[in-house]
Design brief:
The complex is a heterodimer. Chain A is of the alpha+beta class. Chain A has 35 helices and 18 strands. In chain A, the strands form five sheets. In chain A, strands 2, 4, 5, 7, 10, 11 and 13 form a seven-stranded antiparallel β-sheet that branches. Chain A has a five-stranded antiparallel β-sheet with strand order 3-6-12-8-9, with no helix packed on it. Chain A has a two-stranded antiparallel ribbon with strand order 1-14. In chain B, strands 1, 4, 5, 6, 7, 8, 11, 12 and 15 form a nine-stranded mixed β-sheet that branches. Chain B has a two-stranded antiparallel sheet with strand order 2-3. The longest helix of chain B is centred in the middle third of the chain and has 23 residues. The chains are: A alpha+beta, B alpha/beta.
Chain lengths: ~1000, ~500
C-alpha cells in the first residue's frame, strides 16, 4: 500500500457515509459517470471511438484483451479501468488530462466498489420497463407516502399546510392561469366539508380556462406560432389547431388519443375533421422562404423538425444529436434517427415556396362562417332549382322563339366587311386578324381611342356596322379586357380620307343590346361622355353589334379611304372594346340583324337533326335573351361570389397526409440534405421495444408504439412535464433529456408509480393532476427555513410548497382578470394587443405593420395574442421562442422584466381598472382600508396585514398629494389604455389608487405562485 | 472620460440618498450581488457564475482586449469592390469566369450554376493608403484614411451560402438558430461589468433607401441554452431605446420612487415571513430597473458631446436608428461598462444594385466607422477595445444580372473568400493578413475560417475558446464547436 492516492481514497471510503449500506446502483451511480467522462471516446459512436473500447457495452468492457480486461467483475484491482483512473502517468491517465475532466475521488471509490460487488451491468433507467413500485408505505395518499418517507430519511420536517387563501390562488394559477374571484375565495373559506379541497380541485379543472392554461405549455412544446418565421415571416392560420388543443384538454381527451390524433389523425380509418385538424401539430414548424433556399434543403429541415419535436415531447430524447453521427451518449444511432424520420418523410410537401398554407391543408371555418356558407349553399341550391324550372319553361317556348328569331334576323345581309389597312390605339396595341377583325393587347389603359383606316371606293354607303366580338385572350373570353367583359363606346366617327377628312354625319344608331342608360346613340351624339355598353348583370358572354345609319348616303370616290375612330372616354376604367370588326352597307335601309352566322345556320337545321353543339347553342342563345333566366343566373353568380369570398377567409390549417407512393428515406451524411447515404425504412430505434408485429409502419404505428404499454418513455416523460408545471421543476429536471446525460430522477419510484398510474388510468390527464394536487406535498406552505434553504435550496424534496414566479403570460392574465378587464372569450383568430410602436416595423424594415386591435380584443387572454415568430410579443418575457420545440422555459429576473410590468400599458391600464373596481365595489372615502382589502383579495386572494395596510395607505396619501399638486399628471395617468374610465370618480383619488394598484400588481407575491 | 464610478450613480448624491433609504441601510451593490448570486444558484447549478464577475477561471490568461464593438455588416459587403483589390478582375471584365475557379462549388439558387457567368470589374478605382500601403476602393475614403490602424483579414471563408444561417454561424458558431451568441458567451464567461446598463447591447440600422435589407432575427443576439440573462439587450432605433423604459404618462420620477419604496417595504415583509431569498432578488431587480431608467437616458443624451466629435461621426449622428448614431452610442456604452456591443447594419445584399445601393451603404458606414476608431483612440480606449467590421460572407467576383444593364448590376452570395477588418484591442495595426486568389474567388493563403476568427477573438479577450464551455443536453458546447485555431500572426 505504497500508493498515496489510493490510500487517500480508501480513507475516504471509510469516512464516507455515501450509500454505505446499499449496493452501488449502476444506472444511477455508474452509468452517468461513464457517460460524462468516457463515452465521448468510448461510447456508442464508432467514429469517435478510441482504443477499440466501448464502456457503454458490457461485453466489450469485460472482454479479454490478451490477459487483461478493462472491467474484471469482483476484482477492481485487476481492472484496467481503475488502474487508468488512478495512474500517475499522464500518458495512461483517464480521462486524458488535456480534456480537463477529472473524476472526483469519491466517485472512483464508488466505481471500485461497484466492480468489487460484481460489476453488475444494467440498462439506463429510463429505458427499463415501467413497473409500478409499491408505494403503500403509509396510509393515505401514495405521493405523500413516498415523499414523507423520503423526508424522514433525509431528516427534514415538512412545512404545514398553506392557508386556504394561498391554496385556492395556487390552485387557480396552476389549473387556469387566472386568480380566483373573491366569491370563489369566500366560498372555499366557508366550505367546511372534509372533502372541500378535492371538490375544489374538480370544480376548477372543469372550468373552460383549464384548457387554455394547459394549452400554453403544449403550444411552447409544439412550436406554435401565427407566422412562418424567417425572411418574409408570412402570417399563417394554424389557430384552429390551437383551439382544438384547448378543447382536447377541456374534454380530457385521453393522452394516448391526444398523441395518436396529433401524430397520425389523418391516417385513422374514417378520420374525423378533428382528427385531421389535430395533425396540424406536425406542421407548426417554421417555413423558410428566404430567396435562394433550395427546396429539398427546406423539406429535409421540416422533416427533421417534425422528427425531433416528436422525439423530445414523447421520448424525452435528444435526437438532434444523431443527425450527423451516432449519439455520443445514448443508444441512438444515426440510422435510428433517419429511420424515425422516415415516418415523417412521406408528406407531399416539397419545401418549395413560402406559403403559410402549404398543402395539404384543412379548411377550418368558424361557426359563423359555417353558418353563412350553409345559408349561401342553400340559397344557391334553391336558385339552381329555379333556374332548372325556368330552363324547362323556356324549352317549351323555344320553337316559337326560333321561328320569330329567324324571321327577324335571317335577312339578306349585304354587309361588306372592311379590311383595315392600319389599326392604331393611343395606348394599347391593335392587331388586324385574318377575319379582318381587330384584337386589342399590350399595355392596359383606363381610356383609349382606336383609329382604323380601310379602303372603300366607288360605293354609295348608307351605314356602318360595328361588331363587338368575343376572344379567348380577353377577360373570361368576353368582349373586353375589363373585369366585367364590358366596354363603353363613347364615340364612333367616320371620315373620308385621312383624319382631317370630311366627317360623315349619322342619323340613327341601333344595337343588339343596350345597358340601361348607356345607349348606342351616345356614341354618335355630341356628348363625349355618353356611350354604348352591354353589361347585363354578369361577365359579357355574348357578341354584340351596332348599326349606325348615315343621314345622307355618301358617295365614295374610287380608291378613297375611310378613317374610322372609336372613342372610349367614359369614367369607367378599362372599359374598352377588346375585339371588333367593321362593315359597311349600301342597302337603302341598313338593318341590324343579330346572331352569329353559326346560330343562324343552326336554327335552319331541323331540331331533330341538329348536332349536340348546335342544339346547345340554340338553347343557350334562347335563354340568354330571357330576362327571368338572366336574373336567376345573376343571383347565383352573386351568391357564389360571396361564398368564395367567405371561403377565401376561412382559416386553412396545414395538416398531414402521406404520399401514395412512399418516398425513400436515406441516412444523410453529416445531416446534409444532398449527401444521402444508405437507404432506411421507417422504424423505431433498435434500443427501444420493437413495434408489435403487424403494426403499420406509418405514423399511426409510430403513435401507437409511443403509447403502448411497454413503451418505457412516453408516460415517464409526460408525467414529468406535468410535475414540472406544478412544482416548477420536474422529478427529472431535464424534461427534454431522459438520456444518460439527463438528470437521474430525484424520486425514481414516484416517477414510475405516477407513470404506471397514468397509463392504467387510461391516460387520464385530469386524474393524474387530481392525484398530484390532492397530495399534502402540493398543499404545503411555501415558507422556507434556513435549514430547508441550506439542505434543499431548489425544493426538490418538497418539504415546502413550490414558490416561483409565474410565467409572464400568466402575470398579464392575472392583471386583466383582477382588474375586471379580461375578455374571457375562447378561441378564434389571434389578436394584436398593446405593443410599443415600431417593433415589427423595425424588425422587418417596415414590411410588417403592427395594427393594434381595439375594444375588447385588447383584453383577451395571452393565449390569443398574435405570435410573430421573428419578433415575439414584447409583453412576454422568459417565454419559449416558439421557433423549435421547448419543454422547459427559463425563469430569470432582469431589470427589463420589472420595466415591463411597471410601464407596459397593459399593467398601467389594469391598475387603473382595478382601482376603479375597488372604488366601485367598496364604500366611500372612509373605506380606504376596505378598498385595499378588496384589491388584495382580487390579486392575492388574501387580506393585507396591518403593516402592509399601513405602507399602502401612506403610499396612497403620498400619491394623492402628488397628483393633487399636478392634476394634469393625474389626468394623463388615467388616460393610459383604451378602456374608458368612470368619469364620475374624482381624478386625483382615482389616479392615486391606480398608482397603489400598480404597486400591488408588482409585488413579489403578485408575480409569484405562493 | 467618464469613469465607471461616476456613472454608477448618475443622478448624483441626492438620488443616492433615496437609494440608501430604500435599502434599509444596506449598500445598493451589496444586496444586488447577494441577491443575484442566490438567484443563479437555484437548482444547485454550480456552473452558473455570479453574473457580475463571470466564471472564476475566466479570463484564462491576460486579455489584450477588454471590450468588443462588432460592426456587423448584415447582407454581406462585396469584398472585391471595397477591400480586396484584384487587377485581373478588372482585366477580365465581361469574360466568363474561368472554370478552374468555380469547379465543384455550391452557390445560391439565384446563381445555381456559375459556369459562363461573366466577370464584373470593381465598380470604382482602388488606391493605396497610409504607411501600410493598403489598397482600398474610392468607395471608402474615410476608412482609407485610417488604414494604418486596421488589420485586414482577406482570407476569410465560411460554410453557409444564405444570410440567416451564415450570420448565425458567425455569431453563434452554428447555422441553425439556438446556440448562444458571442456576446452571450462573453457575458457568461467574463461577467457583466455594468450594473445599470446591459453588458451585451445590440443596435441595428439599415441604409436609407435600401431595398435589399435582411431581417434582424433576435437569435443573432440570443443566449441559446445559456440563461436568458446573457442575451443581448436590443437598443431600439425609435422610441424608448429600451422597451418599457419610460414611466407611464403622468407618473413622475418621485412618484415612481415612492411606489418602488412601498413595493420594497411590503416585499421585505414577505421576505421575513417566507424566507425565500428570491424575494431579495426581486427587490434588487426593481432597484436596477429604476437605475436603468436614469442610466439609459444619460447614455443617449448627446448634449455633452463636443461639436467636433459629433461632426466626426457625420451628419446622421444625432438621428436615432442610423449607423452613425449607433457608432457613437457604442462608444458611450463601452465607456459605461458594456463589454460587448453588436451593431448590425443591413442593406449590403446587392443582387442587383452594385451600381446604386452599394454607394449608399458605403456612405452610411464609412465615416462613422472611421470616427469610432479615431474617437476610441483619442480617448485611450482603442488599446483594449477591439473593433470589428465585416459581414457574413462576400459577394461573387462575377456578375449577377446582365452585363449590358449597368443600373442592375449585382453580385450573388459568396462564401469562399471575403474580407473583415479589425482595429485596436491587441491586433496588429496596419497589416493585411491572408489572401484570396487573383480573382478574389477563393481564399488561398493563410485561410481564416469563421471558427478561427471566433477563436482569435476570444483569445484577444483572454479566453481559451476550447475551455469556455457549457453543458447542455449532455454535451459540452462551445462557440467554436469542435474547431477553431487562433490566428496568432495578427496578434500585436
Amino acid at each position: 500500500m505504497n500508493h498515496p492516492r489510493l490510500m487517500t481514497l480508501l480513507l475516504a471510503t471509510l469516512v464516507s457515509p455515501v450509500g454505505a449500506s446499499a449496493e452501488v446502483d449502476f444506472s444511477r451511480e455508474i452509468l452517468p459517470v461513464l457517460s460524462d467522462n468516457c463515452f465521448q471516446c468510448h461510447g456508442p459512436d464508432p467514429k469517435s471511438r478510441k482504443g477499440e473500447l466501448r464502456l457503454d457495452d458490457e461485453a466489450d468492457a469485460k472482454r479479454d484483451r490478451g490477459g487483461h480486461a478493462v472491467v474484471v467483475a469482483g476484482k477492481s484491482g485487476e481492472s484496467e479501468l481503475i488502474k487508468r483512473l488512478l495512474t500517475h502517468d499522464p500518458d495512461d491517465l483517464m480521462p486524458p488530462p488535456e480534456l480537463g475532466k477529472k473524476i472526483p475521488a469519491d466517485v472512483i471509490v464508488r466505481i471500485r466498489r461497484w466492480i468489487d460487488e460484481g460489476a453488475q451491468w444494467g440498462v439506463h433507467w429510463a429505458l427499463t420497463p415501467i413497473e409500478r413500485p409499491d408505494l403503500a408505505v403509509a396510509a393515505g395518499h401514495p405521493i405523500d407516502g413516498y415523499i414523507s418517507t423520503r423526508l424522514v430519511k433525509e431528516g427534514l420536517a415538512p412545512q404545514p399546510r398553506a392557508s386556504r387563501e394561498t391554496l385556492i390562488r395556487r390552485l387557480h394559477q396552476d389549473l387556469t392561469g387566472l386568480p380566483p374571484t373573491p366569491a370563489e375565495v369566500d366560498g372555499f373559506l366557508a366550505d367546511k366539508r372534509p372533502d372541500a379541497w378535492r371538490r375544489l380541485v374538480r370544480r376548477v379543472m372543469g372550468k373552460a380556462a383549464f384548457g387554455e392554461r394547459m394549452a400554453w405549455d403544449w403550444l411552447d412544446a409544439s412550436r406554435y406560432a401565427d407566422s412562418n418565421g424567417y425572411q418574409g415571416d408570412m402570417e399563417r392560420t394554424m389557430w384552429p389547431w390551437r383551439d382544438w388543443v384547448v378543447k382536447a384538454f377541456n374534454e380530457n381527451l385521453p393522452w394516448d388519443q391526444f398523441t395518436i390524433w396529433q401524430l397520425a389523425g389523418d391516417l385513422l380509418p374514417n378520420a374525423t375533421f378533428e382528427q385531421r385538424l389535430a395533425t396540424g401539430f406536425n406542421r407548426n414548424h417554421m417555413i423558410n422562404g428566404e430567396g435562394g433556399r433550395i427546396a429539398e434543403e427546406n423539406r429535409v429541415d421540416y422533416v427533421m423538425d417534425m422528427t425531433e419535436t416528436m422525439g423530445t415531447i414523447w421520448l424525452g430524447l435528444t435526437f438532434n444529436c444523431s443527425r450527423c453521427h451516432d449519439h455520443k451518449f445514448d443508444p441512438i444511432k444515426q440510422r435510428d434517427y433517419y429511420s424515425l424520420s422516415a415516418f415523417f418523410n412521406q408528406t407531399p410537401v416539397s419545401g418549395a415556396g413560402r406559403s403559410p398554407q402549404t398543402a395539404p391543408v384543412l379548411k377550418a371555418p368558424t361557426p359563423k362562417e359555417k353558418q353563412a356558407m350553409a345559408g349561401l349553399n342553400a340559397k344557391i341550391a334553391e336558385l339552381n332549382k329555379r333556374s332548372a324550372d325556368q330552363v324547362r319553361k323556356l324549352a317549351k317556348a323555344q320553337a316559337q322563339w326560333e321561328k320569330e328569331f329567324l324571321a327577324h334576323n335571317d335577312k339578306p345581309a349585304s354587309w361588306e366587311v372592311l379590311n383595315p389597312l392600319t389599326a392604331r390605339a393611343t395606348v394599347q396595341s391593335l392587331a388586324i386578324q385574318q377575319d379582318s377583325s381587330v384584337l386589342v393587347s399590350g399595355k392596359k389603359a383606363d381610356n383609349d381611342t382606336y383609329t382604323v383606316v380601310a379602303k372603300a371606293g366607288g360605293k354609295r354607303v348608307t351605314g356602318f356596322r360595328l361588331e363587338a366580338l368575343k376572344h379567348k385572350s380577353l377577360f373570361q373570353g368576353s368582349t373586353s379586357r375589363s373585369g366585367s367583359g364590358n366596354f363603353v363606346l363613347t364615340g364612333f366617327e367616320v371620315r373620308v380620307g385621312d383624319a382631317k377628312g370630311e366627317t360623315l354625319k349619322f342619323a340613327s344608331a341601333k344595337a343588339t343590346f343596350e345597358q340601361g342608360g348607356l345607349k348606342v346613340k351616345g356614341a354618335i351624339d355630341a356628348d363625349p361622355q355618353t356611350g354604348w355598353a352591354v353589361w347585363d348583370g354578369r361577365v359579357v358572354d355574348r357578341e354584340h353589334a351596332a348599326v349606325f345609319g348615315l343621314a345622307e348616303p355618301a358617295d365614295l370616290a374610287p380608291d378613297s379611304q375611310l378613317t374610322i375612330t372609336l372613342r372610349h372616354d367614359s369614367k369607367h376604367k378599362e372599359h374598352l372594346l377588346g375585339c371588333f370588326r367593321l362593315s359597311l352597307t349600301t342597302d337603302e335601309k341598313p338593318v341590324l340583324t343579330e346572331g352569329s352566322g353559326k346560330l343562324l345556320a343552326a336554327l335552319k337545321v331541323p331540331r331533330a337533326k341538329r348536332t349536340k353543339d348546335q342544339a346547345d347553342l340554340v338553347a343557350t342563345e334562347h335563354r340568354s335573351r330571357d330576362r327571368d333566366y338572366r336574373m336567376i343566373r345573376e343571383k347565383i353568380d352573386l351568391a357564389k361570389g360571396r361564398l368564395s369570398k367567405i371561403d377565401k377567409g376561412v382559416a386553412r390549417v396545414m395538416v398531414m397526409e402521406d404520399l401514395e407512393k412512399p418516398r425513400e428515406t436515406f441516412i444523410l451524411s453529416r445531416g446534409i440534405y444532398n449527401k444521402p447515404g444508405g437507404p432506411v425504412t421507417a422504424a423505431v430505434p433498435v434500443s427501444l421495444p420493437a413495434m408489435p408485429p403487424g403494426a403499420p409502419t406509418n405514423r399511426v404505428g409510430l403513435a401507437r408504439w409511443l403509447t403502448a404499454k411497454d413503451n418505457p418513455l412516453t408516460a415517464r416523460v409526460t408525467v414529468n412535464r406535468f410535475w414540472q408545471m406544478i412544482f416548477g421543476v420536474g422529478i427529472v429536471k431535464t424534461p427534454g433529456d431522459f438520456g444518460v446525460q439527463g438528470e437521474f430522477p430525484k424520486h425514481p419510484e414516484l416517477l414510475d408509480w405516477l407513470a404506471a398510474e397514468f397509463v392504467e388510468s387510461g391516460w387520464d390527464v385530469k386524474h393524474l393532476l387530481e392525484l398530484i394536487l390532492t397530495s399534502e406535498a402540493y398543499q404545503r406552505s411555501s415558507t422556507t427555513t434556513p435549514e430547508l434553504q441550506e439542505r434543499d435550496p431548489a425544493n426538490r424534496l418538497l418539504a415546502r410548497g413550490a414558490r416561483f414566479r409565474m410565467p409572464s403570460w400568466m402575470i398579464r392574465d392575472q392583471a386583466l382578470a383582477a382588474s375586471g378587464l379580461l375578455n374571457d372569450r375562447i378561441g378564434g383568430a389571434p389578436v394584436n394587443g398593446y405593443q410599443p410602436a415600431g417593433i415589427w416595423e423595425e424588425a422587418t424594415f417596415g414590411k410588417k405593420k403592427y395594427v393594434q386591435d381595439a375594444g375588447d380584443k385588447l383584453y383577451r387572454r395571452s393565449l390569443y395574442i398574435f405570435w410573430r415568430r421573428i419578433v415575439g410579443p414584447t409583453m412576454f418575457f422568459d417565454s419559449a421562442a416558439r421557433q423549435i420545440c421547448e419543454v422547459k422555459t427559463p425563469r430569470t429576473n432582469t431589470p427589463l422584466h420589472a420595466l415591463a410590468t411597471m410601464n407596459d400599458v397593459t399593467y398601467v391600464e389594469a391598475s387603473r381598472a382595478l382601482a376603479e373596481r375597488i372604488m366601485r365595489e367598496t364604500g366611500g372615502d372612509a373605506a380606504a382600508a376596505g378598498r385595499l382589502r378588496r384589491a388584495y383579495r382580487l390579486v392575492l386572494a388574501r387580506a393585507p396585514a396591518a403593516a402592509e395596510t399601513a405602507v399602502w395607505l401612506k403610499g396612497l396619501a403620498r400619491a394623492r398629494k402628488q397628483f393633487a399638486a399636478d392634476k394634469q399628471a393625474a389626468a394623463e395617468f388615467l388616460q393610459v389604455g383604451e378602456s374608458r374610465r368612470d368619469e364620475s370618480l374624482d381624478p386625483v383619488e382615482h389616479a392615486a389608487w391606480s398608482a397603489v394598484c400598480l404597486g400591488i400588481l408588482n409585488l413579489d407575491e403578485a408575480l409569484n405562485k405562493e | 472620460m467618464n469613469t465607471l464610478g461616476e456613472l454608477r450613480n448618475p443622478a448624483g448624491p441626492a438620488q443616492l440618498g433615496v437609494n440608501r433609504r430604500h435599502f434599509f441601510g444596506r449598500s445598493a451593490t451589496g444586496i444586488g450581488v447577494a441577491a443575484l448570486s442566490s438567484l443563479l444558484a437555484r437548482d444547485g447549478a454550480a456552473a452558473i457564475p455570479d453574473p457580475r464577475t463571470g466564471l472564476p477561471d475566466v479570463p484564462h490568461f491576460a486579455p489584450r482586449a477588454k471590450r468588443v464593438i462588432y460592426l456587423f455588416q448584415n447582407g454581406a459587403p462585396t469584398h472585391t469592390d471595397i477591400f480586396d483589390y484584384k487587377p485581373r478582375q478588372r482585366k477580365m471584365h465581361g469574360q466568363p469566369v474561368p472554370e478552374e475557379y468555380i469547379a465543384g462549388k455550391r452557390f445560391s439558387t439565384m446563381t445555381k450554376d456559375p459556369t459562363g457567368k461573366l466577370m464584373l470589374a470593381p465598380i470604382e478605382p482602388f488606391r493605396q493608403y497610409g504607411q501600410c500601403g493598403a489598397w482600398l476602393s474610392d468607395l471608402m475614403p474615410y476608412t482609407a484614411s485610417i488604414a494604418d490602424e486596421l488589420c485586414f483579414i482577406k482570407s476569410m471563408h465560411t460554410e453557409a451560402v444564405n444570410h440567416a444561417p451564415a450570420i448565425s454561424f458567425f455569431l453563434s458558431g452554428a447555422e441553425i438558430p439556438g446556440r448562444p451568441t458571442l456576446g452571450a458567451w462573453l457575458s457568461y464567461g467574463l461577467g457583466i461589468e455594468s450594473e445599470n446598463l446591459p453588458g451585451f447591447a445590440v443596435m441595428t440600422s439599415i441604409s436609407k433607401k435600401s431595398t435589399c435589407g435582411q431581417i434582424f432575427y433576435d437569435f443573432y443576439w440570443g443566449s441559446g441554452f445559456l440563461p436568458s440573462r446573457y442575451q443581448g439587450v436590443k437598443f431600439r432605433g425609435q422610441g424608448d431605446p429600451v422597451l418599457y423604459l419610460a414611466n407611464p404618462n403622468g407618473m413622475s420620477r418621485p412618484m415612481r420612487r415612492g411606489i418602488l419604496d412601498d413595493i420594497a417595504a411590503v416585499n421585505e415583509m414577505k421576505l421575513r415571513e417566507s424566507g425565500d431569498p428570491e424575494i431579495s432578488t426581486r427587490i434588487a431587480q426593481y432597484e436596477m430597473a429604476y437605475r436603468m431608467q436614469t442610466s439609459v437616458p444619460e447614455l443617449t443624451d448627446l448634449s455633452q458631446e463636443p461639436r467636433s466629435v459629433l461632426d466626426m461621426y457625420g451628419p446622421d449622428v444625432k438621428e436615432q436608428g442610423t449607423f452613425a448614431y449607433n457608432c457613437l452610442m457604442a462608444r458611450r456604452l463601452i465607456e459605461r461598462g458594456s463589454r460587448y456591443v453588436q451593431l448590425m447594419h443591413a442593406g449590403w445584399d446587392q443582387h442587383n444594385s452594385i451600381s446604386t445601393e452599394l454607394y449608399n451603404q458605403c456612405r452610411d458606414t464609412d465615416q462613422p466607422s472611421m470616427a469610432l476608431v479615431k474617437d476610441l483612440k483619442a480617448r485611450g480606449l482603442l488599446d483594449d477595445t477591439l473593433v470589428i467590421w465585416g459581414g457574413e460572407f462576400g459577394r461573387t467576383p462575377f456578375i449577377q444580372g446582365d452585363i449590358n444593364n449597368r443600373p442592375r448590376w449585382g453580385r450573388d452570395h459568396h462564401p469562399y473568400a471575403f474580407t473583415v477588418w479589425m482595429a485596436g484591442g491587441g491586433v496588429k495595426p496596419g497589416i493585411s493578413y491572408g489572401a484570396s486568389d487573383d480573382l478574389g474567388m477563393n481564399a488561398i493563403e493563410d485561410k481564416v475560417h469563421v471558427h478561427d476568427f471566433q477563436a482569435t477573438l476570444m483569445h484577444l479577450l483572454g479566453i481559451n475558446h476550447e475551455q469556455l464551455t457549457y453543458k447542455f443536453q449532455g454535451r459540452h458546447f462551445r462557440l467554436t464547436d469542435i474547431h477553431g485555431r487562433v490566428v496568432r500572426k495578427i496578434l500585436a
